[in-house]
Amino acid sequence: MTVPFTPGRRSLAKGALAGVAALFLATAAPGSASASGDSGLPLLRLPAPTGPYPVGARVLHLVDRSRNDPWEPGIGVRELMVTVLRPAVSGRGFPRVAHLTPGAAGEFAALAPLIRPHLPAHGVDWAATLTHARAGAPALPGRRPVLIYSPGGGDARTMGSSLAIDLASYGWTVVTVDHPGDASEVEFPDERPDRERIRTTVLRPDLDAATFRTMIDTRVADLRFVLDTLAVDRVGVYGHSAGGTAAAQALHEDRRIAAAVNLEGYLDQMDGELLPVARQGADRPLLLAGTDGSRDTRLDRSWSALLAHAGPVTRWQLDDTAHWVFTDYAALVPQLHKAGLMTAAGCAAMVGRAVPRVTVPGVRDLVRSFFARHLPVCAPPSR
């Protein structure tokens, strides 16, 4: 089933725009650049979460000794960095987590115009942006449904912070996962003989079929290792682009995943071979969410193959948007445009022409509503 979604249409305005006032109460509106930071450069802001809970964050370094790293075999093991976001008792007195650490921000500043050509090559202090999660804030007691996030190819887990923190503010435990070697940059706690402290991406614009296959296979294995580490048997998984591809395929392979969201990820290999999930179908809830701005024949073919099977699979399309509207770029890119650091065409190419005060809550509502049906949390406290 395909359900078109045009942000701003009256028929969906009530659901998509619920909580907009709260969303922007704690920050400047994501469509406008704010005052300069200490560097004198424009200070980019992320939208605040809308749920009833403060959010605490903890960063973990996970090591899978049963696998080698596919991109750097000399390492000898597969290492992951993850952030665990949980509803907190209180965030007061705990520092807000930086969107990018200074080291990661320095690498990203150099990589940004290479991995995302519309982004500016200079004029941005990527280390100045703060998220709305609090480092060390004590988690609320009790077990909560777990959601795992896999970012897009060439993106770090940090570019999915806004949506992940919003989900955690409604009661889920959300784990965002980096895929080192694939992600733009990943910072580890320390160096080791065969790897530097910050690993940067091996992906190049001329991505070939073998590299894409390795990327998806590795991501699925990474997600399953995180499940092993968490020792949970019922979770939700969501991902963007290559992360969406991995989320859908992981749902097919691992019964511990109860529901998944694929945010505009292909369901085939670059040579046209359909992934098993597309060939055989899904027997647990799967949401396929795409944009009109990045829809193409390859996406239609692979998604249609899956939809041809009977099963709990739904397709949504967000009109007047483009591929990176599912990430933090939805809020950041319009600010870069307003600051004169990006062209209108570049902004539209990345996130579409719909304004972020509509698209940000629209995407949040779509993903949150899906998981509320299939992995519900306890009712929030009355306010």
UniProtKB/TrEMBL annotation:
AB hydrolase-1 domain residues: 145-265
SUPFAM superfamilies linked: alpha/beta-Hydrolases
Signal peptide span: 1-35
UniProt superkingdom: Bacteria
Gene3D superfamilies cross-referenced by the UniProt entry: alpha/beta hydrolase
Pfam family, one: Abhydrolase_1
Keywords per UniProt: Hydrolase, Lipid degradation, Lipid metabolism, Signal
GO molecular function: hydrolase activity
PANTHER family listed in its UniProt record: PLATELET-ACTIVATING FACTOR ACETYLHYDROLASE (PTHR10272:SF0)
Record protein name field: Alpha/beta fold hydrolase
